[in-house]
Design a protein that fits this description.
two-stranded antiparallel sheet; mainly beta; 0% helix; disordered N terminus; 11 strands; Immunoglobulin-like; 41% strand
Length: 133
């Protein structure tokens, strides 16, 4: 069991997957999980920007549409903020970001519109719950 402390460090991994609900027939990442490795994370250094990682993903469509589409990252929301992806650590969650520089927070289980074949840039960053003293 990991206790929350400023000196604690741990290794963290996030898995992402998705499914297109409407035609055309497309596959996200070849139907393979999207892995984001955060490596060793020092809790005291988590500030909503440190440990930010890009999410590399692909989208292959059988009929190469050139149209508006949308993608949603689904998962379980954190106990301290349902818009964040829960982790196995009670006081830690994953913030999903979109935009060229990750300037837009994307709430978990919400749609992100885009125009195929240009895929939206997605980034993730660990965040911690603010503890009251």
């Amino acid at each position: 069991m990991l206790k929350y402390s400023a000196a604690a460090a741990f290794s963290m991994q996030a898995n992402f997957s998705g499914q297109l609900i409407e035609p055309p027939q497309c596959q996200i990442n070849g139907e393979k999980p999207i892995m984001v490795e955060f490596g060793s994370v020092v809790i005291a250094q988590i500030n909503g920007d440190s440990y930010r990682k890009p999410v590399f993903w692909t989208l292959t469509c059988s009929n190469n549409p050139d149209k508006s589409m949308r993608v949603k990252i689904s998962g379980t929301g954190s106990a301290f903020n349902a818009a964040l992806l829960a982790t196995s650590q009670r006081y830690l969650a994953i913030q999903i970001l979109s935009g060229k520089n990750g300037e837009n927070a994307l709430a978990l289980n919400n749609w992100l519109p885009f125009t195929f074949p240009a895929l939206p840039v997605i980034q993730v960053v660990p965040v911690k719950k603010a503890l009251r003293c």
